[in-house]
Amino acid sequence: MADEKKDTKDLAHDIDTSRVTSRWRDEGDVVKDLFHRLEWNIIDGEFAGTEELIDTCLKEGIKARTLISGPMALGIEEVGRRFKADEFFLPEVMVSAKCMHAALGILKPLIVEEKMDDLGTCVIGTIQGDIHDIGKNIVSMMLEAAGFTVVDLGVSVPPEGFIQAIKDNSPVIVGMSALLTTTMNMQGETIKAIAAAGLRERITILVGGAPVTQEWAEKIGADAYCEDAMVAVDKAKVCINAQLPGGHPALAEKLLASG
Amino acid sequence: MKEMTSRERVITTLDLKEPDRVPSNVWCTFEGYQNLRKGLGLEVADQYPTGSTTWTTDVAVEEDVVEILGADLIRINAGPPGGSPGFRPIEFSDVPFDMGIPVPEYGLVVDEWGVIRRKVAHEAGSYYEIIGYPLLEATTLPTAEGIKAIEDYPWPDPYDPTVVEDLYGAGVGLRERAKWLRANTPYAILLQGGRGGIFEQAKYMVGYAKIFSDFIEAPEFIAALFKKLMEIEIGFNRVALEACGEYVDLVRMSPEDLASEKSTFTSPAMFRKQILPFYTEACHATKEAFVAKNPNGKIDFHSCGAVSRPQMEGLVGEAGIQCYDSLQPKVREDANPAAQKVNFGDRLAFLGSIDVQEVLPWGSVDDVRAEVKQRIGELAPGGGYILTSSHRLEHDVPVANTKAMFEACREFGGYPIGP
Fold this sequence. Notes:
The complex is a heterodimer.
Chain A: H1 8-18, H2 29-44, H3 47-59, H4 64-84, H5 90-114, E1 121-126, H6 134-146, E2 149-152, H7 159-169, E3 173-177, H8 185-196, E4 204-208, H9 214-220, E5 224-225, H10 229-242, H11 249-258
Parallel strand pairs in A: 1-2, 1-3, 3-4, 4-5
Helix pairs in contact in A: 2-3, 2-4, 2-5, 3-5, 4-5, 4-6, 5-6, 6-10, 7-8, 10-11
Chain B: H1 6-14, H2 30-39, H3 63-69, E1 73-77, E2 88-90, E3 108-110, E4 116-122, E5 125-132, H4 143-152, H5 162-165, H6 174-184, E6 188-192, H7 199-206, H8 208-217, H9 219-244, E7 250-252, H10 268-291, E8 298-302, H11 309-319, E9 323-326, H12 337-344, E10 349-354, H13 359-362, H14 365-379, E11 385-389, H15 399-412
Parallel strand pairs in B: 1-6, 6-7, 7-8, 8-9, 9-10, 10-11
Antiparallel strand pairs in B: 2-3, 3-4, 4-5
Helix pairs in contact in B: 4-9, 7-8, 9-10, 10-11, 14-15
């Protein structure tokens, strides 16, 4: 474990000389600089610096939700872009994800206090029999960053677990993750159980995970297939804007168009 | 060309020359093997010697199956230190570290590395899932303490006599088995001495969720752990080769996984700096021990996934591997079988490649034949290709498809083979 804080002098120089951005141009210089550094700290997975920056931002009166949906969300989006482009690999992604997760941990309690309108609740979990969650955790985190309230049910969640969470939380979105070809059937079974409980039309269902495909999503009656966390956030927002009931064909059209 | 023996065929292939026809190998899980034996009309037992407990099951395929399918290699493995079985039951309360699991689990097993697994059943069979990572906590300690935890850990001992004396718990020694195979069968012999690997075993000691960020956040711990695992890998290989190296044609290093289907796990620079040097030392030491017994012995290296050109360049150019398995075909295009042959076929032999993700379990016999024909066309010209499934045959592969794969290898594998 790194005993010393990473040297932030190099990082600051790097930011000043190479990572110029036109984002935040409407903000004053102080806030602009803070947002800029926060975004790049997420990309570098630099948590010690991030903690300090969050502190300073909060003291400047900036809202927690602004930080999450602004510089932090853009930072983690850039991480996703770099991963797709073979510039970042798993080590860099995991370090950024940890930083983001820790930062969210600081800011989440403050959001509850702020009582701003949020985009709605997402219930998310890995389906029964499957204990894989690294991808799901990143999706959870990015949905939170985007402004959703996320109820993460964890792993190996039986259909009854999803159903109860829908009843308890009235979510707009339900996300199901599966990593194995041998367990992905439970995505279909869970959707059937939700329909049997009369809850299908209240929610839009997103599915994802390594073996999941567009064809599979259509076959099991999910609303959308999300190949990665960024697509999940985009499609979740489409669902909210569409304001169509779950399982509606027009909704499927909109989601396919956006994917 | 006069028909070669299986052994001649494999040796010629590994020497990157064209034999009479493409050789082949049989590779199964335990349930896959039972299924195959049943489908071939052979008696099926409840237990089979498994080559290595660390990767679920890896059956030591027997001579009768190799003969019926017309394959050319047979595999032997070193045994678990302390004797078989490799997986032993352990009670939740007896696990010597905190697994971070709040509710007790049942049906747990522990292996020679101290890794804890539980059995997961599904329609196609079962597998063991890791739930307890013995060195996960150590990566969160200050560097010096973490490294001490590595030093103090009760590692498996490659020099334990049972490693070579008690193969498969049947009281058969490694040397005895190899000698018998050489005298009584025509097959080339593939030896795997290692029982864990380096990066691979490190993933099981620390866990996937943590190890990737450790490359950046705890590099000294990773280096110390890889060094220790490399020493153990070299130990197993030396011991096994000392016992039977003169009978062996190909040594397989403990399988490593360097990539997903879409991208490598680390950047090229990180691979070069933090992973490759350990493979280089392990492969060189293993090769040295091998050629002392068989001057023409070759080293085989496994990785699933889209092994990139920089990675392969390091493995071939620095670590000196001479054969690569299992050449998963459903990977990104620049790492697929055709690409690997184009980029490395003049220096590297290949073992594997027949798609086990879709074609073998779900394709028709004609699909299997087409797959074999395609891969032979891509990989066999000039020699250097041993055909087998791109991973272990599982329970759900129809025996008709397995038979078709080996028959098609005969049908399409006669040299000369054009590109």
